[in-house]
UniProtKB/TrEMBL annotation:
Family note: Belongs to the bacterial ribosomal protein bL20 family.
Entry function: Binds directly to 23S ribosomal RNA and is necessary for the in vitro assembly process of the 50S ribosomal subunit. It is not involved in the protein synthesizing functions of that subunit.
Gene3D superfamilies for this protein: 6.10.160.10, Ribosomal protein L20 (1.10.1900.20)
UniProt-listed Pfam families: Ribosomal_L20 (PF00453)
Protein name: Large ribosomal subunit protein bL20
Gene: rplT
Length: 118
């Protein structure tokens, strides 16, 4: 006897439509369109996980640069000074220090300036 895929297909569709919850129109409730949309969404999600890292790094660099320029030094000189001074802080923590603890950032900038001068 030939078997049909009734229960398995229904379950697969249910799994598919669970992923498309919140989409508009046919993207939410037409099988073929929903499948295409899920694949496309996965591609964007994969790509944008990488882009997110890049954009945050750009933000941190911009914040550090602004804070450094207020203290009379530019970003590249500051980073060079940190390397020479042996200060190993990442850009995320430097930007947080620049925002939350300006006096602490002043001491870091002074240390970088001294290392450049020496």
């Amino acid at each position: 006897m030939r078997t049909r895929k009734g229960a398995a297909r229904t379950k697969a569709k249910r799994r598919l439509f669970k992923k498309t919850k919140g989409y508009r129109g046919g993207r939410q409730n037409l099988t073929r369109t929903a499948k295409e949309t899920i694949v496309r969404a996965g591609v964007f999600a994969y790509r944008d996980r990488k882009v997110k890292k890049r954009s945050f790094r750009r933000l941190w660099i911009t914040r550090i640069n602004a804070a450094c320029r207020m203290r009379g030094i530019n970003y590249s000189q500051f980073m060079n000074g940190l390397t020479k001074a042996g200060i190993e802080l990442d850009r995320k923590s430097l930007s947080e220090i620049a925002i939350c603890d300006p006096t602490g950032f002043d001491t870091i900038v002074d240390a970088a300036k001294k290392a450049i001068a020496a």
